[in-house]
Amino acid sequence: MPSTSIEDFRGILSNARNILVVSGAGLSAASGIATFRGQGGRWRKYDASILATLAAWHENQSRVWQFFHYRREEVRSKRPNDGHYALARMCMPKWRRTVAPNATIVHVTQNIDGLCLEALDELSSASEEPPDGTIIEMHGNLFDVVCTAFDCDYRAKNMDYPICPALGGTEAIVAAGNVEPVVRRADLPHCPKCQQLLRPDVVWFGERPKQIQRILEAADSADLCLVVGTSSLVQPASKLPERVHANGGKVAVFNLEPNTNHSDEADFEFVGPCESEIARILGV
After folding, report:
1. Residue positions in the annotated binding site?
2. Residue 200 three-state SS
């Protein structure tokens, strides 16, 4: 059985050299962001996870863009919660040196809402000492776009509201009981460089995660892994704690419910809301 001793965990934390954080949807739940996993994971009449695929994109680019337009507008009004800020403080030497003075940290998040980076940016702007920890959005970011043309390298942050006029109001049309709108390909977001179609720069099911080699290297060198708010069902993120454990590192799981997916490698398990438990247990 994993330990629930905060004192013992902090002893491990204080001696850690390389910390890997793996976070998931549970970290952002308190910010009001839907997980689209399990019961209720639907958008309109569709299984939301099916829409985040290359097959769905080839079948109906209008529908996929309407879904991601909805996600963008949902996330736009959300703010980081205390869990985001606690993990962001771990990326700042000012705070981390008080609990893990000799450690480096790499935070790998499966979330595409951008709230982990937003929390770190806020803390950084108010600090004289820059962050030295790394946050990797392994599945991308809702507000990033990439050109679909094979020979175009356009990739950018896009915070436009809406991202194109034709997508504005599509949710309201469906909510009013009307037929799903069909947005013409010509009216969807297009690349300013080559005029080809843009797509959300997020990792769809079946695609290779971003910076995967760097992530695997971080897992192989970590002597402590913090698993935060994730059901650990999606590979390769689900395998990262296992790699740390196999190399002799310790694994601490923070989740709202007991996480049986990591029962074999978890040395510590802390059950409770991420937004309150992370800061309390880490001591930052």
Report:
1. 147, 152, 191, 194
2. strand
